[in-house]
Design a protein that fits this description.
Elements lengths: L7 H14 L6 H16 L15 H13 L5 H15 L1 H19 L7 H20 L4 H31 L2 H15 L3 E4 L5 H8 L8 E3 L2 H6 L5 E5 H5 L3 H4 L2 E9 L2 E8 L4
Parallel strand pairs: 1-2, 1-3
Antiparallel strand pairs: 3-5, 4-5
Helix pairs in contact: 1-3, 2-3, 5-6, 5-7, 6-7
């Protein structure tokens, strides 16, 4: 979850080290937040099918824990050092994001990739934010006000970078909509029902259904017996590895319509071979 929860997890881990080193009554709230996070994290690690959204309820807890070094009034040396490190990191956050953007630009040029990212405006905004941070700290009259400005601008640069850079890259690699549209055009033209083979009604199925232009209740086939007994036309959607695991004699009864990706998963769409 490091990508989805940004830097909350590593900062929380550092705060936890401090909590365990200095077990004080003043840290009661921190222990409660830690218990909140661990109950969810450990509990949701038990199910065999793990999804990132299962641990979404621990987000408030880790966010509060990660923020503790920035708001704590404690004189504990560990948290004072951690605070200074984080502030230095946030102080140069826009510059760091700007340099990463420049590096991404040169990489895409070499690899001939087009993520549809407006690199120049993004870098100009980030460097402008970095300049504002420098001015705020150079002319600071109130340390707390300067700290608040640094945190606000660093957060703004993070949000701006995510919207302007990360989302276009994710959209570039997310070809699910085009894939589903192509499959659905063929399926509707053939008048065939939508069938998921050995797929629970979860992530892959949801990703397919949300990209359908017209909603339709799919059919679920759970095993080879049900697949072999299925009569009539049908477009079957399953993971490539699942299709490849079919017995050769059963596989010969079907033909592949197309292959593609739903998210990061390789999938294959197949249908029964028409007799006669």
């Amino acid at each position: 979850g490091l990508d989805s929860y940004a830097i909350s997890f590593p900062i929380t881990a550092l705060v936890m080290i401090g909590i365990l080193q200095h077990r004080k009554s003043s840290h009661l709230l921190l222990f409660q937040l830690l218990g909140w996070a661990l109950i969810i994290l450990i509990g949701m690690s038990i199910p065999g099918d793990k999804k990132l959204r299962y641990i979404l309820p621990l987000t408030p807890a880790i966010a509060l824990l990660a923020a503790y070094p920035l708001v704590a009034t404690t004189n504990e040396k560990y948290y004072l050092i951690l605070r200074q490190i984080l502030l230095r990191l946030f102080y140069f956050a826009p510059l760091l994001f700007g340099l990463l953007t420049a590096g991404l630009f040169y990489y895409t040029q070499i690899q001939q990739l087009d993520f549809a990212i407006a690199y120049l405006p993004i870098m100009l905004v980030l460097f402008a934010l970095q300049f504002i941070i420098i001015v705020c700290c150079w002319r600071r009259k109130n340390i707390e006000m300067a700290t608040g400005a640094i945190l606000f601008i660093a957060t703004s640069s993070f949000v701006w970078s995510y919207i302007a850079i990360v989302e276009p890259i994710e959209l570039y690699f997310e070809r699910a909509r085009d894939f589903v549209t192509t499959v659905e055009q063929q399926r509707v033209h053939a008048g065939a029902p939508l069938i998921f083979y050995k797929e629970p009604p979860d992530r892959l199925v949801i990703k397919y259904l949300i990209h359908m232009q017209q909603s339709e209740l799919p059919i679920f086939v759970d095993d080879e017996i049900g697949l072999q007994a299925f009569v009539g036309p049908g477009f079957f959607v399953t993971r490539t590895t699942t299709f490849q695991a079919l017995p050769p004699e059963l596989k010969t009864k079907f033909q592949i319509v197309t292959t593609g990706k739903l998210g990061h998963r390789e999938v294959v769409v197949f249908r029964s071979i028409k007799k006669g």
